[in-house]
Structure formats: C-alpha cells, structure tokens
C-alpha cells in the first residue's frame, strides 16, 4: 500500500479536501481521518461520509486493554519523573491545590506530556511506520488533523524520471496543497 499524509489546522480544510478527493476519484475506503478527540472530529463526520478516528479514545482503549490507565503509578516512571511515588506528588501539587508544573492542573499537565507518546501504539496499529507515527503524533497532540489517502496503486503510475505523477496519490498531494495542508508526507 502506498499513502500520502496531509496535516491540516482546521476541520473545514479537511472537509474541503475530502470533497475534492472524492471528486478526483478517491473512494471513502481509501481515506482515513485522524483527530485528537471528538471535539476535533465532530464536524468532519457530520459534513462528510468519512469516519474520523479519535486518537485519545483509541489510546485510552489501549491503556485499559493492557491494564494501565492514566491513574497508574507507572505513568510517572514512563515519563521520566522518577519513582512510583511521583504521580502522587504530581496530583498533590503545592498547598493541596492539585496543581503541578508551574501551576497547571496536574491532570492537564500529565495529559499534555503523554499526548504524543500515548498515540504511538494506536498509530502503529493503523499501519503507520515509525516516522509517520512520530509526525502524526506531534501534529495530533498540537490539535491538528491528519488526512491519509492510502491506495493499492502500482508504483509505476507515480512520478518517474521527473515526469508527472498520474496516480491518485499525486492528485491527493495537489488537493492537500490546494486546501492548505501545513505538512504533506509521502508515506510508505
């Protein structure tokens, strides 16, 4: 499978890209939308026929499946905060305020630190390689949206010796550029 990945800052950009991709002959089965959470995906799902995978939900499902959630003591160790008592210290904050790391609520600070890392296993499960996972994790943790076009087209249709790329992935890249993608990645 070959893929093209576009990173977008707004739901409207993704909706526009989906419409244009479908007009260019890309089927909904070749499209995948990744969003940080339901807040970042609701409009896309309402205005297009493409489901958006909510990475926070997928990561939480993975955590629960493997027996460790956000409240586990191992969380502090995984982030390099120190020993098993660290999460309790983060939760306690100063003066019983429930804050940590410069006054941020402890839960928000912990989630911010884990966003990129928590998405990795879910993104790998979706078939992304290490580089794609790193790029998508960072984009999603910053609130961006990811649109992936994945096809089983022959590589022979793609750009050869400086000629035009006549594949659906070539069309996808043109659509991504036209719809304002902040980053375009040529996937596997």
Topology:
Blueprint (H helix, E strand, L loop, with lengths): L1 E7 L2 H13 L7 E5 L2 H10 L4 E3 H11 L8 H5 L7 H7 L6 E2 L3 E2 H20 L4 H12 L3 E7 L16 H11 L4 E4 L2
Parallel strand pairs: 2-3
Antiparallel strand pairs: 1-6, 1-7, 2-6, 4-5
What does this structure look like?
- The chain has 188 residues and is an alpha+beta fold.
- Helices cover 47% and strands 16% of the residues.
- The protein is built from eight helices and seven strands.
- The protein has helices at 11-23, 38-47, 55-65, 74-78, 86-92, 106-125, 130-141, 168-178, and strands at 2-8, 31-35, 52-54, 99-100, 104-105, 145-151, 183-186.
- The strands form two sheets. A five-stranded mixed beta sheet has the order 3-2-6-1-7, with helices on both faces. Strands 4-5 form a two-stranded antiparallel sheet.
- Helix 1 packs parallel to helix 2.
- The longest helix is centred in the middle third of the chain and has 20 residues, at 106-125.
- The termini are close together.
- The model is unreliable at 64-114 (pLDDT under 50).
């Amino acid at each position: 499978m070959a893929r093209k990945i576009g990173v977008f800052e707004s739901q409207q950009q993704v909706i526009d890209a989906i419409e244009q991709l479908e007009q260019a002959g890309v089927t909904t089965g070749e499209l995948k939308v990744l969003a940080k959470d339901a807040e970042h995906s609701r409009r896309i799902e309402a205005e297009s026929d493409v489901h958006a995978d909510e990475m926070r939900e997928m990561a939480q499902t993975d955590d629960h499946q493997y027996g460790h959630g956000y409240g586990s003591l191992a969380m502090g160790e995984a982030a390099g905060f120190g020993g098993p008592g660290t999460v309790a210290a983060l939760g306690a904050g100063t003066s019983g305020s429930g804050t940590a790391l410069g006054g941020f609520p402890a839960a928000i600070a912990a989630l911010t630190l884990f966003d990129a890392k928590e998405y990795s296993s879910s993104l790998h499960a979706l078939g992304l390689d290490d580089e794609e996972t790193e790029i998508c994790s960072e984009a999603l943790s910053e609130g961006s949206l990811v649109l992936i076009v994945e096809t089983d087209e022959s590589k022979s249709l793609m750009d050869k010796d400086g000629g035009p790329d006549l594949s659906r992935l070539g069309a996808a890249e043109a659509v991504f550029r036209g719809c304002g993608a902040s980053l375009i990645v040529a996937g596997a």
